[in-house]
Amino acid sequence: MSALVTGGTRGIGHAIVEEFARFGAAVYTCSRNKKELDECLEDWKHKGFRVAGSVCDLSIRTQRDKLMEAVSIYFDGKINILVNNAGTSRLKQATDYTAEDFSLIMGTNFEASYHLCQLAHPFLKAAGSGSIVFISSVGGLMSVPSASLYAASKGAMNQVTKNLACEWAKDNIRVNAVAPWIIETSLI
Question: Which domain of life is it from (predicted)?
Fold first, then answer.
């Protein structure tokens, strides 16, 4: 099995990378932080895991294109699993959010995940059986104080999960979302 896990150097993403690797999957991950990525890759190498990765700021479209190009080469044009995990948040009152906040949160949490699905679709289809997992949030299902933009990005993610699940079932690609509650790791 082959898997792309975004934001795999800490938190839920790190745990997903390690779990896939323990099961024998080849994993590719990305992070905005080169030092953090290099440290994780070295640790995974010592554990005997097959994990590769590259630096990528998912809020930048051209970097997503380059990421998927690298992943396609690494996995020879076939991907079994895409985990859209990377995310960010800024906690503020709704009236205090700026256009920059909107672009960062929606761009990282929703736009990047949607675009990666588009880019990964041919590689998931080529594998014969694909799976996409969105790491959403309870915040996308209920009100969370001072997190209206984060909640909106996760709510959009929940809806697109339903749409892609129906649209891509014919291509043998499953699409699901997991909505955890607060975890004790950083989103920034």
Answer: Eukaryota
